[in-house]
Amino acid sequence: MGNVDTSFANRVLRDMNTGVLVLNKQGTIIYTNKPARKMLEIGKNETLDYFSLFMDIIKDDSEASAYNDGFNEYIFQSIYSKSETHLGRVKFMSPSGVKRSFEMTTSYLENDENEDEFQIVITLCDVSAEEELRVKYRDSSTIFSVFLIGICLWLTIYTLWDDLGEPFSKKYITHGVEVLGIILLFVILKFSSLKWKDIGLFSGNPKRIAVSSIIMCGVAFTILLTIKLIFRNNPSIIRQGPFFNFSVMDFNRWFYIVTALVQEFLARGCVQSNLKRILDCKHPSAVSIYMASLVFAVLHIHLGIGFMVGAALLGGVLGIVYDKQETIWGVWIIHWFTGTMAALMGVFYK
């Protein structure tokens, strides 16, 4: 692939784990070893110039352009600062869209006989796995710290509200949890690698999700109806009154459709999905569902132990559904339907 001593290349560079890339003055890639071709997705007998390889990647892709800025900058730095070897960690997006992290060095190599002729020698060490672990550790620290602060703050607010003799309605406490949760979510988005697309807002198969969610709503209705019939005369479990008490459908109850969406947005999209992503254990899905359910239950402490147990059980079921569907829309509908039916029947509502 150019005017390079092939015996030298075969002896020294062929079996290296580090990728080696050499450019000439015209920007033509005159040598790549096997690791470099794999990292950069270059064919074995392919002769390319630098701009056709890298600039075409970013031509119509703003994400790739931003991703490869550091990589390109190191190439140019070797020309601007000829006497220095430039070393650093950079991100790179290949033509197929694969994202990697490299430890990259670039060096300016002069021709002693002709100063106008030079080469740029680039070495690449793929540190994507190490970078992923670093990001995972940073995200786990951020998420743990934010939620620990949030839960402690929430328990402090609840304790103060309880000690003052419940000076205002429980519904305001519930809305306060949602506001606090949204604030915590924005803090996490700000200080971690978590993006909006990572929190379950997108659905790959809406029809399948809708059908499975309707079935789950039917199961939830059957369970609530059974509890109502068995414990109808037990005031600690069932609120006394009509079988279906439509008088509870006030503005706050109708607004519950928004409340349920916010809660699932936080419990599934934020807590569960990110716990699963950062946990390093044998069964991350199961552990993330369990932990998210406990958080969900604690946030309902102002509604009593019975409601907390019900919230934990519902959270566990919704966690399993979310783990299968990977979107909050199905669990949102199940959450809203179950909560509304429980309120109408007075199950776990005092």
How would you concisely characterize the structure shown here?
This protein is α+β, with helices and mostly antiparallel strands and about 350 residues long. The chain is about 60% helix and about 10% strand.
Could you describe the 3D structure shown?
With 350 residues, the protein is α+β, with helices and mostly antiparallel strands. 59% of the residues lie in helices and 11% in strands. The protein has 13 helices and five strands. A five-stranded antiparallel beta sheet has the order 2-1-5-4-3. A hairpin with a 5-residue loop joins β3 and β4 (99-110). α6 packs antiparallel against α7 (170-191) and α12 (305-325) packs antiparallel against α13. Residues 55-60 have low confidence and may be disordered.
Which properties best describe this structure?
350 residues; alpha+beta; 5-stranded antiparallel sheet
Low-confidence stretches: 55-60
Task: Please report which band the strand proportion falls in: under 5%, 5-15%, 15-25%, 25-35%, 35-45% or over 45%.
Answer: 5-15%
Shape: elongated
What about the largest sheet?
Answer: 5 strands, antiparallel
Spatial sequence of strands, sheet with the most strands: 2-1-5-4-3
Instruction: Provide the residue-averaged pLDDT.
Output: 80
If helices are DSSP runs of H or I spanning 4 or more residues, what is the number of helices? 13
Specify the helix fraction band. Answer: 55-70%
Number of strands: 5
